[in-house]
Amino acid sequence: MPDRSAAPPALARKLGHYLTNALIVGIIRCALALPYETRLRFVGALVQRVLGPAAGYRRRALDNLARICPDLPPARRREIADGCLNNAGRTFIENYSAQDFPARMADVTPEGPGMGALEAAAARGQAVILVTGHFGNYEATRAALVARGHDIGGLYRDMKNPYFNAHYVKTMEAFGGPVFPQGRRGTAGFVRHLREGGHLVLLFDQHVQFAPVLDFMGAPARTAVSAAELALRYDALLIPFYGIRQPDGVHFRCVLEAPVPPSDPETMTQALNDSLSAQVRAHPEQWFWVHRRWRPEE
What contacts 47, CB < 8 A, 6 or more positions away? Predict the structure, then answer.
């Protein structure tokens, strides 16, 4: 006889995903009905004061801050955790502002030595891998580059909630450039994109099981070296970049740093960690401290 014991949990999980997505869609629709700057303030405050604490994100951010920045006064750690959640909320609704946000980023001129390197690579048909972390709004720079005629692809991780994932992917597609899911399903697409001299955005700052242990923010953290491996395999430039939110909470600087010199995957990835660490130290509220980035038990 078939085992029906798993059916109720599966049904409950499906219902939970459906209701969670319904809440998210309701928030998105309400926010998008507001003027642009008002919607950013609204969703930023909602995530900072309600959704983030309820989900345990604020506590996790504070735990990470206590581990990595033990010398900071507790009040300052709380301020950074609150700013982190506010930035996450603003980033979320910016990325759903499929017309307003790209239009605003079209007026931003990307800067830094990596911009010239990117343009030179595009002229000669060389692949480029643009690497960043969950910092500021990583889609800001992609939108600014797409507005200037660059075809910038994206790589994403499917969300566990399939209802949410369906429209989440569409937000990335709205910025232009092909997007590929992580895993076997997307590998062929983004490899072909690089072989053809395409440009691709990768985020590298989450814990990856069995990845090499490298230094990040002064502590050991397992860090994927796949971006460096791809750069070496396909003769691609490896360029760290950042969409840095400005003090008004609305505008951005888009900075492309100098390409990481080719050497070996771990050395190159450590250079990426060092680059991101410098940005996090300069703008700690803009990094997503919620990730379980450091796992000493492994």
Answer: 85, 86, 88, 89, 92
pTM of the model: 0.91
Matching residue, tokens 């937000």: 171
Partnered with residue 203 across adjacent β-strands are 132
pLDDT in tens, 155-210: 776 767 776 667 776 776 666 667 777 767 777 888 888 999 999 999 999 999 99
Could you tell me which residues come within 8 angstroms of residue 189 by beta carbon, excluding any fewer than 6 positions away?
Answer: 178, 180
C-alpha distances out from residue 257 to 158, 237, 238, Å: 28, 11, 10
- Token pair recorded at residue 154: 């994206």
Which residue's structure tokens are 């491996």?
229
Q: So what's the pLDDT on residue 58?
A: 98
What is the rounded CA–CA span in Å between residue 154 and residue 95? 14
Yes or no: say if 120 and 199 are a contact pair by the CB < 8 Å rule: no
Helix (H) or strand (E) holding 211: none
State the pLDDT confidence band at 296, using cuts at 50, 70 and 90. Answer: low
- Asked if 181 and 168 touch (Cβ cutoff 8 Å), the reply is no
Write out the two tokens for 162. Answer: 């399939």
Q: Which amino acid is at 221?
A: A
pLDDT per residue over 20-77, tens digit each? 878 888 999 999 999 999 999 999 999 999 999 999 999 999 999 999 999 999 999 9
Rounded to the nearest 10 degrees, how much is the dihedral formed by the CA atoms of 127, 188, 179, 132? -50
